[in-house]
Write a structure and sequence with these properties.
alpha/beta; Rossmann fold; about 20% strand
Length: about 250
């Protein structure tokens, strides 16, 4: 249940349109909803500012659609990540107005009361083009959570002049998400150039010695630039969720 629905219910009580007991019963039914395969947290948006996000990996198309229907029925909209093509097609057929991003593997639906717009810009920077799927997941998540997103693409340390030429973009951002595989050096470079929060997303892009993202993860964790925060390998969603809390002041 979103904040605006709670407020509308309280206003009904105040005006005498519904008695307190009936309002309490409505609230009692809303905290969660149990399906055979999922228990949906309808009060997530009240606690965290955004409805429960559905992790699509490992779920069938039918399960994902059923969960999305429950969320949409509460006027909350939804965001589904790591959606396989079959489930993505099923979601867009059921919700034609939903936004599907094939590269990001996400589907999102705007709710009846969209989240408030965050302060400033979340800048998403990719070291290479191969990092774009993770960056797109971060972008779709940040937009769904009510943020303005800008991008810098393919500006890794192999050609550092590409990054330095965009210094104004870096310094005008409220938060910077840096998505980098291979050696994972870009978050440290950017962390040394700006005063805003920097969130590093190591990716599984790279040859064998990158150990499917472990090498850039360790590089980011060992950054000599103060204040660089690191999320899990390929976790564009987690980076955007953290950035959104910063832009929304929570």
């Amino acid at each position: 249940m979103s904040a605006h629905r709670i407020l509308a219910l309280l206003e009904l009580v105040a005006s005498g349109g519904i008695n307190p007991k009936a309002a309490l019963e409505k609230l009692a039914l809303d905290p969660f909803e149990s399906l055979d395969f999922a228990t949906i947290d309808h009060h997530r948006s009240l606690r965290q500012g955004f409805p429960e996000v559905v992790f699509g990996s490992g779920k069938s198309a039918a399960q994902i659609v059923a969960i999305a229907e429950c969320l949409a029925a509460k006027d909350d909209g939804f965001l589904v990540t790591r959606v396989e093509p079959e489930a993505r097609e099923a979601l867009t057929q059921r919700f034609p107005q939903a936004v599907s991003n094939e590269m990001a593997r996400t589907v999102r639906l705007v709710g009846a009361s969209p989240p408030p717009v965050g302060s400033g810009v979340i800048l998403i920077v990719t070291a290479g083009t191969s990092d774009l799927p993770v960056a797109e997941e971060a972008s779709e998540t940040a937009v769904a959570m009510g943020n303005v997103v800008h991008r810098l693409t393919d500006v890794g340390v192999a050609g550092i002049h590409r990054l330095l030429a965009r210094a104004d973009d870096l310094r005008s951002a409220r938060v910077i998400i840096v998505v980098a595989g291979m050696d994972g050096a870009l978050p440290s470079v950017i962390g040394g150039l700006v005063s805003c929060p920097v969130i590093a997303v190591p990716t599984s892009v790279g040859y064998g010695a990158a150990f499917s993202g472990v090498a850039p993860l360790l590089t980011a964790l060992n950054s000599c630039a103060a204040g660089v925060t690191v999320v899990n390998i390929d976790n564009g969603f987690g980076a955007a969720a953290a950035a959104s809390r910063i832009t929304h002041g929570t």
